[in-house]
Design brief:
- The structure is a single chain.
- This protein is an alpha/beta fold.
- It is built from four helices and five strands.
- The chain has one domain: Glutaredoxin (3-Layer(aba) Sandwich).
- A five-stranded mixed beta sheet has the order 1-3-2-4-5, with helices on both faces.
- Helix 2 links the parallel strand 2 and strand 3.
């Protein structure tokens, strides 16, 4: 899956996760959205699979764009962000990395984190 370039306006936040392939694609998403929650995951990771419905719900119900980065397919990008374990969630606000969370987190905790930066 590729980046959907039809959402030109930053007010049109994507309602489903965007699968990212490469640093340029992630940079484009971060630049085009006020708040971006990036999920560094692996298909073989059980906790990542547990987090998947939470991430999908956050994409649909919050003001954040949600980017998904497969660490196996994007090892250099994962290394650039210091990802040592999956899942790792990196939150960007106004183009800057503001939070990094390792491990499965509750939906309520992630939702309030997003809302703190979306105001």
């Amino acid at each position: 899956m590729s980046v959907d370039s039809t959402a030109d306006s930053s007010t049109d936040t994507p309602t489903e996760p965007i699968y990212v392939d490469g640093e340029e694609a992630l940079d484009e998403i971060v630049a085009g959205n006020d708040v971006v929650l990036t999920d560094f995951y692996a298909d073989w990771c059980g906790p990542c699979q547990m987090l998947e419905p939470v991430v999908e719900s956050l994409a649909e119900e919050t003001e954040a764009a949600v980017a998904k980065v497969d660490v196996d397919a994007n090892q250099m990008l994962a290394n650039a962000y210091g990802v040592r374990g999956v899942p790792t969630l990196v939150l960007f606000a106004d183009g800057e990395q503001v939070e990094e969370i390792v491990g499965v987190q509750g939906e309520d905790q992630l939702r309030s984190l997003i809302e703190r930066y979306a105001e």
